[in-house]
Write a structure and sequence with these properties.
- This protein has six helices and four strands.
- By secondary structure, the protein is an alpha/beta fold.
Length: about 80
Amino acid sequence: MVCLSLFRIINDQIMEVEANNFTACNLAQKLVCLEDIEGGKFVVVYASAESATDKRFLQSLKKNTTFSSSLVACVVDESHTVKT
């Protein structure tokens, strides 16, 4: 999972990942359809700090082991946007 603050960068990165034959999505656009993320459909998940800390996503991460067990890393770019 990669956390970025600019949607334009996220969209550019998704296109780059897909050009290399991997699946990727923007979590902010997929929050309404978490089943795809939970089911492991995407190899790379991009997110803003807000969507990565969204209550629905965090609950999904806790209850669904398919995604959480395959999560290798969470990379935070623009980490100053994450409230601790």
